[in-house]
């Protein structure tokens, strides 16, 4: 789904930057689907493993108004509030006026919480979970669960609806998609995608935001 969504919003010979690119698997797959696209990755912790993918040392090194699509797949749930603000500021600065910010995050409420918590317990070979039984029930019915102070290694308590509210402060959300149940209510899926466009006033004021 990520490759299809980005392919659909990327202009011919466009530039795509993947924030939190890891070893570059997504950009590699995108390059196979769209050989015309320039691929740039940024990751504070990992090096690229695919020779066709170039990494930038920092987001500040990307020229203003030079990017067609900025992606942030499965990373926003691990950012502190100030880091998320910095990412959105960078997006407004580097995106072209008609560019797109494409985000995906896990859905940690609704029915998906049960298999996700169960899977975590199986993988860790433990009967203990970050979630108490009460918190699992709260998450199942869409109630918010408190987040740990450190979001780096956990999804607990992440609420995509709160992220959407923050993003909507600076971007217009053109489209949303759910996986693996795209035509069903969000509480039946486990992943949430947003295609976001800079608001006109935000784009013009990006220098102030940065």
TrEMBL record:
Transmembrane segments: none annotated. GO terms for molecular function: methyltransferase activity. InterPro entries: SAM-dependent_MTases_sf (IPR029063). CDD domains: AdoMet_MTases. The lineage of its organism: Bacteria, Bacillati, Actinomycetota, Actinomycetes, Kitasatosporales. GO terms for biological process: methylation. Keywords: Methyltransferase, Transferase. This is Methyltransferase type 12. The keyword Transferase applies. Pfam families: Methyltransf_23 (PF13489).
